[in-house]
Here is the input.
Amino acid sequence: MPSTFTAVSYGQTLSPAVMEKVRTVLTDHGYTIASERGEHHPGFEAVVLELGSLAPSGTTDAQAAARLARLRKALTEAGAGEVSTAVVPDSLRHAARKFIIMDVDSTLIQQEVIELLAAHAGAEAEVAKVTAAAMRGELDFAESLHHRVATLAGLPESVLAEVGAKVKLSVGAERFVAQAKAAGHVVAAVSGGFSQILAPLAERLGLDFALANDLEIIDGHLTGKVSGAVVDRASKAVQLQTWSAESGIRQGATMAIGDGANDLDMMAAAALGVAFNAKPAVREAADAQINLPNLDVALALANIQDA
Here is the structure.
C-alpha cells in the first residue's frame, strides 16, 4: 500500500482548538507533520497537513492498514463532529490524472429518483421505505430494485421528463465536476437508478463515463421492469476498474464517492472511498467521510486546484 499520506481537515469552520487536537493525534501516533497550509472554499474551510511515511520499514500491508485504521478512528474522535479529517494516500493527491467515480442518487444529486417516479404512481411512501432499507444494506439491491420498479408499471413515458426537470444537483456538485474536468481528470457516474435520468445529466456536466439501469418502455408506457442486468454494488466496482483502466489511470489514483450500501464495493476498490452524508454502515467502512452538504469537499481531498 502507499507509504506516504496527507491529512486533510475540513469543516464549515476550523477552530484552533480542534486543529490542535488533530495535530496532537498525528504526533501521538508517531507521524511527522512536514508542512501545513489552509484553504478557503465556498461553504467550507480545509487545512492540509503533509505527513511522512505512515508505515515503518518492514511493516506488512496488513499491519500498515491496521495502523491507519487506528489513526483514522482517533482523528474522528478528536474532531468530535466539529471537523472531519481524512488521511489520503499521496498516490491519489499527487497523481497527474485522477479517476473519480460517483454514485448519483443522494450523492451527485439531492434526491432519490425512484421516489420521485413512485410519487406519480401513488407509491412514494412504500418505495421510500424499501429504498432506505436497501441503502442500509438490509435488502438485496437487485431484488429491492425490481420490487420498486414494479410499482411504476403503466406510467406514461412523459413522467421521465417531468422527474428529470425536478432533479437538483448536490451543493458543490457542478463546481466539483467542472474543476476536476478542467484540471484534466476523468469523472464518471454509476447508478442503481435510471439511464433515462442520468444520460442528460451526464451530457450537461460533461461526464466521461456514465451507467445506470434502463427502464423498459413499451408503447409509450413504463412496464414496471428494467432491461438487462441490474447495476448493483458488484457492477459498480467493475465499472471503476474498467473505466479507470481504459483511461490509463492506475488504482492508486482513483476515488469513489457514495452514500449507500450499494456503493461499498466500488469504495473498497478505490484508493480512497468517500462516504457522502452516508448511512452509518457506509461511514464506518469508508476511508473518509464528508458530513457537510458540500460535494466539492472532495476537491480538497483529492488535491484538485483551480485550473
Q: What stands out?
A: The mean pLDDT is 92. Residues 95-307 form a domain with the Rossmann fold fold (CATH 3.40.50.1000). The first helix runs from residue 16 to 28. DSSP finds 14 helices and eleven strands in the chain.
